[in-house]
Design goal:
This protein is an all-alpha fold and 66 residues long. 85% of the residues lie in helices and 0% in strands. The two termini are 20 Å apart.
Length: 66
């Protein structure tokens, strides 16, 4: 595994841990539906970020192979 990929994975794990901490540390009354929508949005953002990282890594590997 390349150092950059490993760094990206560590960053992703840290983002997930921080997101879970923020979501579980409720800052006031929110309904279960609101909290679920927030969690879904956060998960979508994390998934999109991971996809961008993977695409960037693939582009870098393709350039190295040329």
């Amino acid at each position: 595994m390349s150092r950059q990929l490993l760094g990206s994975l560590i960053a992703a794990v840290l983002i997930v841990i921080i997101a879970i901490a923020v979501v579980t540390a409720s800052f006031g009354p929110t309904s279960a539906a609101e909290q679920e929508v927030r969690e879904e949005r956060l998960e979508e953002r994390l998934d999109a970020e991971e996809e961008r990282r993977e695409a960037a890594e693939e582009r870098r590997e393709e350039r190295r192979e040329r």
